[in-house]
Each structure stands twice: as structure tokens, then as C-alpha cells.
Amino acid sequence: MGGNGLVFEDSHGLLWPDWPSAVMPVQHLVFSDGFASVSVFIEPGSRNAPAPAEASRMGAASTFTTTVRGYMITAVGEVPPTTVRDIATSLAPASDVGATAPPAR
């Protein structure tokens, strides 16, 4: 997906049914190249040890979830599994942009 880039951004709170007073902030980004799109969901990670990265595929949809710098990142789209993995693992907080270059692959 080397084309248009970010096409949608939204931040909102996610309510937990068991704890009505607990609202978790979630950011939703959509990236597209005009042919395919990938949704990325960003939420605060667990205070415990980060969960291991997980990948799955159902039909044409691929998902990849990982923890990046204390945030749980989930990327979903009708794209190859490597694409959602690469997008999810390449994100960084805005405060880190320009601070360090991502590792070469």
C-alpha cells in the first residue's frame, strides 16, 4: 500500500459493560491506497507484561495485533498478512516521530 496514506482518523472512548464508569480511549485510523484499506485501532496496553503478537486470517481479511511502546495496536484489512503486520509494527507515538529511525528489515 504505497499510495494515498491516511484517509480517516477518529478518537473515542470505549465503554466496558461490566464497569460503566471505565472509559478506554481508542484511536481509529484508516489507511488506503485507493484500492485497499487498512483500519488501525490504537488503545492503551495492559499494565502487565505485553501480550505476544497475534496474526489471523479469515477469508480475504487479515489481522495483526501487537504491543508498541505501551499501546496495543490492531491492524485489519483485506490485504496480505505481511501488510497488516508491517503497518502495525511501524507505528510510533507522535512524540517519537523523528527521534529514531525504524529498524531496517
Assign the CATH architecture: 2-Layer Sandwich
Order of helices and strands: EEEEEEH
- Runs with pLDDT <50, length 5+? 99-105
Range of strand content: over 45%
**Number of helical stretches of at least 4 residues:** 1
Residues in helices, as a percent range? under 10%
What radius of gyration results from the CA coordinates? 14 Å
**Cα distance spanning the termini:** 17 Å
**CATH class categorisation:** Alpha Beta
Question: How is the largest sheet built, in terms of strand order?
Answer: 1-2-3-6-5-4
Could you name the CATH topology? Phosphorylase Kinase, domain 1
- Biggest sheet architecture: 6 strands, antiparallel
Number of strands: 6
Overall geometry: globular
Structure explained in plain terms:
The chain is globular, with a radius of gyration of 14 Å. It contains 1 helix and 6 strands, in the order E-E-E-E-E-E-H. The protein has one domain: MucB/RseB, C-terminal domain (Phosphorylase Kinase, domain 1, 2-Layer Sandwich). The protein is mainly β and 105 residues long. The longest helix is centred in the last third of the chain and has 10 residues, at 81-90.
Strand and helix map with partners:
Layout: E1 5-16, E2 19-32, E3 37-44, E4 54-58, E5 61-68, E6 71-77, H1 81-90
Antiparallel strand pairs: 1-2, 2-3, 3-6, 4-5, 5-6
